[in-house]
Amino acid sequence: MTTIEDIKTPISTEFSTFEKEFKSVFETENPLLSSITDHILKGKGKQIRPILVLLSAKMCGEVNMQTIHAAISLELLHNASLIHDDVVDETYQRRGNPSVNAKWDNKISVLGGDYFLSNSLSVAVKTKNLQILDSISSIGKELADGELLQLSNTKKSVSTEKDYLKIIRKKTALLFSVCTESGALSVNASEQQCNALRNFGEYLGICFQIQDDIFDYSENANIGKPVGNDIREGKVTLPLILALKNADKKEFEMISKIIDNKDFTTENINKIILFTRENKGIELAQKYMETYKSKAIDELNGFKESAVKSALLFTLEYTTKRNK
User: Fold this and answer.
1) Which residue of 53, 168, 187, 312 pairs with 61 in a disulfide if CB–CB is 3.0 to 4.6 A?
2) Beta partners for 98?
């Protein structure tokens, strides 16, 4: 199984520069803000998004400070969205640790998320690249749009695959595509290279979110968030959508009634999870994800073989095979 460290190997020097510069943007004399940022940094995730920026840049040229600033800005933006999402979703666990709103409260979380967002835009300006700045400033709007779409979608009894894809494209996949495109833009890659990497990032992001949604129905407890959490919030994601399509009329009506009535007791959540597993929702979602994995691989066909290209393909493999 490929690890994150394996993926970072071709950009180890560049990633060290990123980490050093990333820490420097949190310097503050505000003790509360310092505590929040320390908490975020201690629970940092795999940092796939800045890795994608650096790999995409290196596949088309040499990583420079424009690349580093783009990577920092996008990681800050990602963290801002997570802090705000935990408030909106009333989630109290993030990456196996207490979320910011659990450790402090919603007011502090919203302001902390605002700080990360403002910091992101401030760093984006340092790229001095209008195309990168435009992409980063636009993605914040798309993230909010995606979350609002998902919230409005919880009012529906049964979502469609089309609804689902529209939501995850905005709330997850487009951020991945901005990462890969920004990396290419930072080294003056050709339009063809930028387009291919942007598409690769989007398809990778779709795979990432599908895998994340599969975890909600997983028996694996080592995922850093409660199993069944999406169901509890009324979010009907791909495994359940496909299981409902695959079910007989009686089962379909039983599960639809629970969703319609928002009757998400522990017993009913367990019933929905079991229903999804028994009606092959997980297997069908994995097959759906494989389609986008193949599309992502195709986007890299025009690039010559290299350690960096292999690392991007490893990222795709890692994303679809990860267990948390």
Assistant:
1) 187
2) 93
**Dihedral sign, CA of 289, 284, 212, 215?**
negative
CA 134, chain centre distance (Å) = 20
| Residue 9: per-residue pLDDT | 93
Query: How far is 157 from 255, CA to CA, in rounded Å?
Result: 10
Residues 208-217 pLDDT 10s: 999 999 988 8
DSSP E strands, 20-174? 93-94, 97-98
pLDDT digits (tens, 9 = 90+) for 240-277: 999 999 888 889 889 888 888 888 888 999 999 999 99
Q: Which residues pair with 97 in a beta bridge?
A: 94
Is residue 299 within 8 A of residue 196, CB to CB? The reply is: yes
Q: Which of 44-58, 148-162, 228-242 has the lowest mean pLDDT?
A: 148-162
Q: What is the DSSP string of 16-60?
A: HHHHHHHHHTT--S-HHHHHHHHHHHHT----HHHHHHHHHHHHH
Tokens at 148, concatenated: 């609002």
Rounded to two decimals, the pTM is 0.91
Residue 14 confidence (pLDDT): 96
The C-alpha atoms of residue 111 and residue 115 are separated, in whole angstroms, by 6
Closest listed residue to residue 309, CA positions, set 60, 3, 38 = 60
Mean pLDDT value across residues 301-312: 95
The number of residues in the chain equals 324
**Long-range contacts: 279-284, Cβ < 8 Å, 24+?**
279/243, 279/244, 279/246, 279/247, 279/251, 280/242, 280/243, 280/246, 281/217, 281/238, 281/239, 281/240, 281/241, 281/242, 281/243, 281/246, 282/214, 282/217, 282/218, 282/239, 284/239, 284/242, 284/243, 284/246
Q: Virtual CA dihedral for 149, 150, 155, 160, nearest 10 degrees?
A: 90
